[in-house]
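Closing statement on the iron/sulfur cluster sub-project.
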Amino acid sequence: MNIDKIKLILADEPAYRMKQVWHSIFVDLIDSWDKCTTLPKVLREKLNAEAPLEIACEVFGSQKSRSLKALITLEDGNKIESVLLSHRDGRKTVCVSSQVGCSMGCTFCATGKMGRERNLTVGEIVVQVLFFARYLKSEGKENNRITNIVFMGMGEPFLNYDNVWKAIRIYNDKDGLNIGARHISISTCGLVEGINKFAKEPMQVNLAISLHAPNDELRSSLMPVNRLNPLDELMFAVKNYIAKSGRQVMFEYMLIDGVTDKEIHAKQLIELMDNKLFVVNLIRYNPTGSHKSSSATAIIRFKNLLLRAGIKVTQRQTFGTDIDAACGQLATKNKKK
Ligand code: SAH
Ligand code: SF4
């Protein structure tokens, strides 16, 4: 499905046509133009031939972890992945990609190992959510809708800033998917320029920072971006955002055995977390080759040190390691074939 092509075909039609079509795509969630009976037959046939609604996709399910992964094939043959996470409390989160691959080169990340192919178009970002919206509808259960969106799939969203925001406006559209800004989060590896721009946006989208290490030496060794924007610059930008928005910021911290999970790291992290609106989200490292993930005991020990210091801590539910539902792993495997 190509949203730009659809728009192009409808450009010569009266404005109400686009409204009808938009409603059919984003509210009725149709997957074939034949279901759009309000359109004249000729137009339907043209759309069917030139801009079909099908999304080329393979789905991988994980019963155990309540997650589903969609591997979407783009028009140029590149593949991207998105994941639907069904939380125990009923929330349904779609984790979307913003780029094919990623140029930031974080050593622990499978997507990073692919390098960057290209930015996704607005349509390519939007269809990832649309795919799962249709999927949930097809299950036929009541209230089965997407509640949250996180930009935590492949790619660095702030390197595709404009398209990411255009896609967010489409997700948020009251006459479409109608997903509230406060239910949408962007995760960045810490690009200060992007954070400063983000701080000026009027919409109340959430900000998450992939911190993963509490000192410059360690962070630079894991995340090359830290050499460009070291911790003091990063924290300054985040605090500036908080001063403007008054909103909470989530710091993602990944526990890698013997690398980021020592007591000294917890102490350094506590020092950095000197704002009431900071929250730490502990993530278990998903082994991608180079390191081992921390043991359950080490994670509890680390978490307790933070809690005792009065830091707000959450822990990411581990979803779908059995289907590689994290960080570009499946797409990388497919590329290698
Ligand atoms: N580029 C953005 C968003 C996509 S990555 C960013 O880095 O924030 C989504 C999250 O998964 C990030 O927090 C990232 O650091 C983390 N991640 C990457 N590789 C991982 C791995 N092997 N195990 C666990 N989390 C990982
Ligand atoms: Fe890119 Fe994020 Fe992976 Fe780093 S962690 S390589 S920024 S996708």
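The longest helix spans residues 122-138. With this model delivered, the sub-project is considered complete and its resources will be redirected to Aim 3.
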